[in-house]
Design goal:
Helices cover 42% and strands 14% of the residues. It is built from twelve helices and ten strands. Strands 8-7-6-3-2-1-10-9 form an eight-stranded parallel beta sheet. α11 (330-342) crosses α12.
Length: 369
């Protein structure tokens, strides 16, 4: 290791130490915004400047920037293809880290972990992971690789886990981000996980000899463990190069909150055991997607019901509640934020904080409040 490299790593550690302390220890309300790579928000320097300006006015103190959308890179990567809607010669993650930090705003690299493609048509780039490693793709019980929301890597394939962890490690190593934020770290549903490699590993681990039923308790537990092992691997690689980075995840809060976490859709459909992640310290903060519309009395009640669940299963660690601005009026969004405050949770993250008239209205509503 050269002297310059050592100096660079020390500076990165000092920057992330400050960010981690603010993220996990501050008594101030955490206000975040997810900014997707699908729409206008940071795809040019001008968009990034506008997003930072809007965040500053709204009191948003953390931006979650989609660095990996579907197996592509919204940063300078030696591993994955560049996002196809970026301005030429522009590194959005580097730009946002520099400009947002100058305004006292954290930047977290938001990574879609398992979902790596959205279309039924394969990527045109031969170097995309979908084309390079079809053996890593998750399959349903009938051998299909297309889920309703895209194409996923199989968490039960160790090589796929290692690949994703190395992609995320690259981000953590190269950019002074305040944290790594994991999305789609799950299976597409209960009928998924049947790649040949995963099944053979399941047979070896359990002694089973035939394809398991999707609702088999043993099979569900095994798949949940694969996702947890993936998270553990990612966390280890990230913290090895950026020791004070905050690890968070966008977790499942579908439907109503059950009394037993094992009955939650997160656990029984997506095989995402975020309760264990919190209890074992694999996450520094939970950011559950409590996306419910206030126009429905049932959904509004579900939103508030989950607030209690987040506290019950949060192991005393921070929870910042994901709020969907697209299915709510500004007034309704403020009502949900008020409910989060009343529940004494740490704050909220808005989906999404892309450049739209909705954002303008939310900024006006949050400014000074």
């Amino acid at each position: 290791m050269t002297r310059n490299t050592r100096t660079f790593l020390i500076l990165c550690c000092l920057l992330t130490l400050a960010g981690r302390a603010a993220f996990t220890s501050s008594k101030a309300e955490f206000r975040g915004g997810w900014v997707t790579a699908w729409n206008k928000g940071f795809l040019t320097p001008q968009e990034a400047d506008a997003t930072i300006s809007a965040a500053k006015r709204a009191g948003i103190n953390a931006l979650f920037i989609q660095a990996r959308k579907v197996g592509d890179a919204y940063y300078e990567s030696a591993t994955e293809p560049r996002g196809d809607n970026l301005a030429p010669g522009y590194d959005p993650l580097a730009y946002l880290v520099e400009k947002a930090h100058a305004q006292g705003i954290q930047v977290h690299a938001w990574v879609n972990v398992c979902r790596i493609w959205r279309s039924k048509t394969p990527p045109a780039d031969p170097n995309h992971v979908v084309n390079l490693h079809p053996d890593w793709l998750v399959k349903d019980i009938n051998g299909t690789t297309w889920a309703s929301d895209g194409v996923f890597l199989d968490p039960g394939v160790p090589a796929a886990r290692e690949y994703v962890a190395s992609v995320i490690e690259e981000i953590a190593c190269r950019y002074a981000v305040d944290g790594i934020h994991l999305d789609y770290i799950r299976y597409p549903g209960k009928n998924w996980g049947y790649s040949e490699t995963a099944l053979n590993r399941f047979y070896a681990d359990t002694g089973a000899s035939s394809k398991p039923d999707p609702e088999s308790t043993q099979w569900m537990r095994w798949r949940r463990d694969q996702v947890t092992d993936m998270l553990r691997l990612i966390r280890g690689k990230v913290l090895a190069v950026r020791p004070h980075a905050v690890i968070s995840a966008a977790t499942i809060a579908w439907g109503g909150c059950p009394s037993d976490f094992n009955a939650s859709y997160a656990c029984k459909l997506a095989n995402q055991d975020w309760r264990t992640w919190m209890a074992q310290g694999l996450l520094d903060a939970n950011i559950p997607m409590d996306y419910k519309s206030e126009t429905s009395s049932t959904a509004a009640a579900q939103f508030r019901g989950w607030l209690g669940g987040f506290k019950k299963w949060g192991a005393g660690k921070p929870t910042y509640v994901g709020v969907d601005i697209h299915s709510n009026s500004t007034k309704s969004i403020m009502k949900q934020i008020s409910a989060i405050r009343k529940a004494r949770l740490g704050g909220f993250v808005l989906f999404s904080f892309n450049d739209t008239p909705l954002r303008d209205a939310i900024v006006d509503a949050l400014a000074g409040k």
